[in-house]
Amino acid sequence: MTGFERIGGTPPITATTTAVGPRDAGNAARTAMATIGDRVLAWSAQSFKSDGAAGATWQGRTGLPSSFTPDRAELARGGDVYQLRALTGELAQGFGATPAQEGALGRAIEDFARGVALRFNALADAPTDTMLGGVLDALDQAVASGAGDGIGGVTARIESAATMVEKLNR
Fold it and tell me: Domain segments of the chain: what residues?
């Protein structure tokens, strides 16, 4: 995301998604991953016509209330259905990231989202604990990893969780 895009038309996601301390890498990573999981589950629930139990469990475990509604028009356009670019831009701006750091963060976020989407959609008919368990464990382990501060710590935590989810999907 360029500075012009950041100033442009995409509004902030919500105040709660990135309302953490300015350098609190653990909370920022947790909030970002919880947001991504919530968005993936919203799409999964809509696609598989589920009762939303997985989304409610996810929100209860992560503490992040859902405010996301899937946009079929965005899907038809082939756009950023999980709004990952906006999430990346918000985090990068909040931590004062360089363009290279923002790029690394964006790749980590995309890897995590891809792994979570694969897992959640493949297990859409499975019991909620089976569907979410490994991903929630990966999220918790990555956040607690002590990966450092600042944007590098956020990126490292998300990369770690993405790697764990990728292993779950094998």
Answer: 3-8+21-168
